[in-house]
Fold:
Amino acid sequence: MQYFVVMIDYGRRGREAIVDPELTRREIVSRVASREYTNISFIHEIAECSVEDVTDDILAEAALPDISPTGADLQANAPDHARDLRKHEPV
Structure:
């Protein structure tokens, strides 16, 4: 049997351990990425008789890539920026 324990820290209000044997690793990553799980203290993977701290691995998997705007995106935004400048210039 394999399951995950996600410990969430609520500060002064205490902590909560979310333990659901039906949740897969993919679902845990999805919930972390969607920010359903925040303020995570740790994530442990329990498999048979062993416990492994997988917090860093899951947080890395859940991190969204930083996608910078391309030249086409910047060029498409130029008319909007020019219009905003005209709209806010002093009369």
